[in-house]
Specification:
This protein is α/β, with parallel strands linked by helices. It contains twelve helices and 14 strands. The site of nicotinamide-adenine-dinucleotide has 29 residues, from helix 1 and strand 9.
C-alpha cells in the first residue's frame, strides 16, 4: 500500500512547497493538504485539501482516520514576530497542535511525525558563531520558548512512548512561491520582490545583523531526507541544527546590486531587531551531516539567481 501523508498548515511558506514536492514524489492523492484557510489556486487544484484547525483534536483525528494517514507533517504555527504580539494565541497554537499530533502517534493512529523547530530555540546567552547542537539555549521570545518546549516534548514522546518524531531547526527560509508568514527573517524574501518592483528596499533589521538562512529547496530536501532516513540514523529526537549560509542585510544588498546595479537599500530597524539580536549568527550542523548525511547546496549567490529569475517570470 502506498503511504498517505497529511500536511497541517499546507498553505504557508514551507507547507506549499512541501505539498508540491511530496505530491510529485508519492502521487497527488496520497498527500492530503490541510490548513485553517484556503491556499493559492494552484495548490488547491493539485490534490485533496481539507479545511482543518490543527488545534482541534477531534477534527484532526477524523481526517487521519478518513484518509488512513501514515505520516503527518505539522507546519501550522505562529511565527516569531507575530507571536510577540499574541503570546497566548501563539502558545496555544504551537503547543496544542504538537500535542495533538504526538498523541495520535502515541495511540498508533499514525506512524511518523515531522515537526519543525527553529534557530529561535537559542537565546542571548548562546554562543553566536557556529552555534553547536548542544549548547546554552534560554530563548527570550514567545516563539523560541514554544519551540524549545516542543523539542523537549518530542524527545519525551520518543523515549517514553516510542513515537517516531523527527525534527530540524530551520534557519530563516528564502523562497519565491509563497510569501513568509510573520517571521524575523522575512526581509530576506521581501528584498527580492522590492528590488525587482521598486529598485529599493527599506530593511527592518540593521545593516550588520548576521543571521543563518537557507533557500527553500534545501529546506524541503532536508525535511524529506530526515523523514526517509532509517530510524536508527536519527539519534537526536529533539531537533537537529541545520545550516546553509549566513549573511547580513548589507551583504545581501551588495549581492543583489551585482544583478540590479540601481538597487538601493535603507535601514529602519523595528521591534524585530531585538528578536534578531537574540539569535545566533551562524550554525554548526555537523551532527545532522554525520547522522543522516545532510549537506546544503544553495549559497547566497545561487539563491539570488533563483529568486530574481523566478520572481521575474
Ligand atoms: N519560514 C521560516 O523561515 C521558518 C524558520 C524556522 C522555523 N519555521 C517553522 O516551520 C513551520 C512552517 O512555517 P512557515 O514559514 O511555513 O509558516 P507560515 O506562517 O507561512 O504558515 C503556517 C500556516 O499554518 C496555518 N495555520 C495557522 N493556524 C492554523 C491552525 N490552527 N490549524 C491549521 N493551520 C493553521 C496558516 O494559515 C499558514 O498557512 C512553523 O512551525 C515554523 O515555526 C519556519
Amino acid at each position: 500500500m502506498p503511504k498517505s501523508i497529511l500536511i497541517l498548515g499546507a498553505c504557508g511558506q514551507i507547507g506549499t512547497e512541501l505539498t508540491y514536492t511530496l505530491r510529485e514524489k508519492y502521487g497527488n492523492n496520497q498527500v492530503i493538504a490541510s490548513d485553517i484557510r484556503e491556499g493559492d489556486q494552484d495548490l488547491m487544484a493539485s490534490g485533496p485539501f481539507e479545511l482543518l484547525d490543527a488545534t482541534n483534536y477531534g477534527a484532526l483525528e477524523d481526517v487521519v482516520m478518513h484518509y488512513e494517514i501514515d505520516e503527518v507533517y505539522l507546519m501550522a504555527a505562529m511565527l516569531s514576530a507575530t507571536a510577540e504580539k499574541f503570546p497566548m494565541r501563539a502558545w496555544n497554537l504551537n503547543m496544542n497542535s504538537l500535542f495533538n499530533v504526538l498523541n495520535l502517534a502515541k495511540d498508533q493512529k499514525i506512524s511518523k511525525v515531522f515537526w519543525p523547530s527553529s534557530i529561535a530555540v537559542f537565546g542571548p546567552n548562546t554562543p553566536k558563531e557556529q552555534t553547536e547542537q548542544n549548547t546554552i539555549m534560554e530563548p527570550s521570545t514567545v516563539y523560541g520558548i514554544s519551540k524549545q518546549t516542543g523539542e523537549r516534548w518530542c524527545e519525551y514522546y520518543f523515549k517514553k512512548y516510542g513515537v517516531d518524531v523527527r525534527s530540524v531547526r530551520y534557519p530563516g527560509l528564502i523562497s519565491y512561491k509563497t510569501l513568509p508568514g510573520g517571521g524575523t527573517t522575512d526581509y530576506a524574501v521581501e528584498i527580492y520582490h522590492k528590488a525587482l518592483s521598486d529598485k529599493k528596499y527599506s530593511c527592518f533589521l540593521k545593516a550588520d545583523s548576521k543571521l543563518p538562512m537557507m533557500f527553500m529547496d534545501d529546506a524541503i530536501r532536508a525535511t524529506i531526507t530526515i523523514m526517509e532516513s532509517d530510524p536508527e540514523k536519527i539519534k537526536v529526537r529533539s531537533s537537529y541544527n541545520l545550516a546553509a549560509m549566513s549573511f547580513t542585510p548589507s551583504e545581501m544588498a551588495a549581492n543583489i546590486k551585482q544583478h540590479i546595479p540601481e538597487f538601493e537599500m535603507s535601514y529602519a530597524p523595528d521591534s524585530r531587531q531585538q528578536i534578531a539580536d537574540s539569535w545566533p549568527s551562524s550554525i554548526d550542523d555537523s551532527v545532522a551531516q554525520k547522522d543522516w548525511g545532510w549537506k546544503a547546496e544553495f549559497d547566497l549567490e545561487r539563491t539570488t539567481q533563483e529568486m530574481l529569475e523566478n520572481l521575474s517570470k
